[in-house]
Amino acid sequence: MTSPSSDGFVSLFKSAGLPQSKAVEAAKNAKGAAILRDLILSHNLVSAGLSEKQAVLVSALALQLGKAQNAGSEARAYITKAILEEKLKSVDQVNGLWSRAFSHVRDS
């Protein structure tokens, strides 16, 4: 059985382009789900018309952000924009760019 907040996350994630199975999976991690919700809302991703692939990449970014301490909003926005502009096409590319961006944040 899912909680009402999980159901709300799943509905939002599906409206942003994630398939049902990926939306349910993303909603299981409370921290990642909250970050994904924030990314969707702050970047208007529901109305952006994301492809399924782009939505999966944004979800992967949210998972990376959930693992980070003090993740910068500039890095979030930069990577989200790169996904929207189809400059990043795989989870490995998202994770690689995040690693580079986050190492810069940690070093400053």
TrEMBL record:
Pfam families: tRNA_synt_1c_R1 (PF04558)
Residues of the Glutaminyl-tRNA synthetase class Ib non-specific RNA-binding domain: 10-95
GO MF: aminoacyl-tRNA ligase activity; ATP binding
GO aspect biological process, one term: tRNA aminoacylation for protein translation
Assigned GO CC terms: cytoplasm
Protein name: Glutaminyl-tRNA synthetase class Ib non-specific RNA-binding domain-containing protein
